[in-house]
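ingest -> validate -> predict -> emit
validate: passed (alphabet ok, no gaps, 219 aa)
predict: started
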Amino acid sequence: MTGGLVLVAPCAAAGGAIGLRLRPVVDRVTAERSPGPAPAGRHSRLVGPVTAALFGATAWGLGWGWSLPAYLALAAFVVVLTFVDLATRTLPRRMVWATGATGVGLLAGAAVAAGQPGRIVLAAAGAAVAFVLLHALHVLARGGFGYGDVRLGAVLGWYLGWQSVSLAMTGLLAGFVVGAATGVVLLAAGRAGRRTEVPFGPALAAGAFLVLLAAGPPL
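emit:
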């Protein structure tokens, strides 16, 4: 059963409050990683509303369960990574690994609390398969596919694999579909050319969440 207003409203409110605290983080990391001066607040003014909306959507799609805190944490990390990647074309390694470490701890605890320890194996398999596939793509692309995207894909594979390995693969595919669609829209709008570098991390994250929410609560 998906979450009702009683669950969605407080989660969205919490997301908005957390988003206010995440905005300075986005500004700081963006300034540190930008080659030139980064206008304060330019890339982060939507962090609060986006975090609130994503928290609410996650609560609505998944409903209450032992795994919900882990996916809300993922939403917070994904918002920061997305805004940083959009602004700097980079995914901070420590932040990606922090996302993964949080998922390992929270979802392992959720699996034990739910009496389904086998989900830990599924999550590990999802992360491993995603890593192998994206690493192979990185090698074949010869630098055209960043290793930060490989790390993020593996982390997302853990979160999606906790439900099923097939969901992890579907999430990866959705990420490529979102990335391709974004590229087409930017080309059509004249905002990008054929050689323009478009960050892939936000597409990976969007694909993962679209698939996660479409799948609904874990069985």
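The chain has one domain: 5-215.
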